[in-house]
Amino acid sequence: MKVMVIVPTYNERDNIDSLLTQLLECDNHLHIVVVDDNSPDGTGDMVDQWASREQRVHAIHRAGKLGLGTAYIAGFTYALANNAEYILTMDADFSHHPRFVPNMIRTAHNADVVIGSRYVHGGGTLNCSFQRKLLSRGANLFAKTLLGLQARDCTAGFRCYSSDVLHSIDFESIRSNGYSYLVEMLYAVQTSGYRVAEIPILFEDRRFGTSKISSAEIGRAVETVIRLFKKRIAGPFGSKRADPAAVRKATSVHSSSNIE
Question: Structure pTM?
Fold first, then answer.
């Protein structure tokens, strides 16, 4: 079983060494694809050093800060071309901790997409400001209400996709390119009838560096949800019409393992 973890980076020099070390220790079959947007702090150079001595670390370098959505697509394309069976996405700042990766992979055997969730039993947040928590809760409520998303944490970037799901998704149909890309991908997954599971994680505010979320990013996310809402009213997503029974059972919450 080949698993690839996609990690988009921009100025994550303080985190990348420790992250790669801990991810490689999770599973001997796990590969890591770092998609770096020409970080001025030298993150990409550090990843190149890793790749030169560790065959399970791969680097994709892009010309500049091109957005989270296209970073994921670059990673997905690379992973699928290299026959990955499961593809994980996670942040580089330890808000998504590597210790949860093994349970995500195990859960993926019985689901098409697994979400590392703050909002199922056993999940939570650590060291996040009241404003950050309010923003997350509000964004989830907004997206769930307008789009009918069944996952409790539909803005989470800590996910594991089966290769079958990614092969079936038309990446060009996903128009958003920031954090709202996560909502649009989940909307595409759910309306296509795929099984979505959630497992509890502890989301921690970043230890080093600065947050990439801006007011402009929030505005674009609102625009994305409204655009998809209009599409939802007009008809099904894309060319594949979801089976209503499959959509009703698409999300099954897994919260049997509490946080250690």
Answer: 0.85
